[in-house]
Amino acid sequence: GAGVSQSPRYKVAKRGQDVALRCDPISGHVSLFWYQQALGQGPEFLTYFQNEAQLDKSGLPSDRFFAERPEGSVSTLKIQRTQQEDSAVYLCASSRNREPLFYEQYFGPGTRLTVT
Amino acid sequence: GDSVTQMEGPVTLSEEAFLTINCTYTATGYPSLFWYVQYPGEGLQLLLKATKADDKGSNKGFEATYRKETTSFHLEKGSVQVSDSAVYFCALSSSNTGNQFYFGTGTSLTVIP
Questions:
Q1: CB B50 within 8 A of CB A102
Q2: Minimal C-alpha gap between A115 and chain B (Å)
Q3: Less CB within 10 Å around the terminal CB: N or C of chain A?
Q4: Nearest chain A Cα to B89, which residue?
Q5: Tens of pLDDT along chain B (113 residues)?
Q6: From residue A114, how far is each of A64, A110, B42, B77, B89 by CA, in Å?
Q7: Over the Cα atoms of chain B, what is R_g?
Q8: Within a 10 A sphere around the Cβ of B16, how many other Cβ atoms?
Q9: A 59-88 residues inside an 8 A Cβ radius of B
C-alpha cells in the first residue's frame, strides 16, 4: 500500500445521525493523528495515538467525538448526534516514529463531512 | 498558547516571479517549524522543515529560514512555476504542545503562465 487512505471520501449526514470515519495508516507507522479542517482554515488537532494507546485527546471538541485504534493500525473517528458545526474535512495522518516532532506526518486525502 | 499566523491569500503571480509567503509564530518553548503544501485534489504533503533557530529548510526550490529573533519562518522561491499552484500551510510543533501540530490558515497560490 502506498499512502494513508481514508473512507468514505464524502459523507452526508442528517443532523442527529452518528457517523464513523475510517483511517488506514501507512503500514508500520506507530503514530496516528486526526485533524479537523473547516472551510478556509488550517487543520486543527483532534487526537493522537501511539500504537493502540490514545495519548492525547485534548483537541476533541466535545464528548460526541470518539476515536479508537484497537489493534494499533486502523483507526476510526466516530461522531455521535452530528451537528451542523461538525461539517468539515477530517484528516488522518500517520508517522513512523514515536517522536513525530522531527519526522514527517503523512496525510490522507480526508473525509468531507456535510451535516444537513 | 502556541500559534501560527500566516499571510492571507489568495496570491496570484506570473510564472518566474519571486514568491514570499509570510509566517510568524508564537511559542513558549522551542518549536520545530514546517511548511506543508496541498496540491489540488491531493492531501497535505510536507514541503520543508527546520528544527532549530537559524536552520534553513529547502526543497523543490523553496526555502525557509527559522528566525528566532523575529519569530518567523517565511517561505520563499526565486522563480515560481505553474505547477507550484497550491495551498501552503505553515505549522509548528514543540515540546510544550506534546505531539500537536498547530497550522496556519493556509495561503492559496495561483501561478499564471
A1: no
A2: 22
A3: N
A4: A42
A5: 888 999 888 999 999 999 999 999 998 878 889 999 999 888 899 999 998 899 999 999 999 999 999 999 999 999 999 999 999 999 998 766 666 788 999 999 999 99
A6: 16, 13, 19, 36, 23
A7: 14
A8: 11
A9: 59
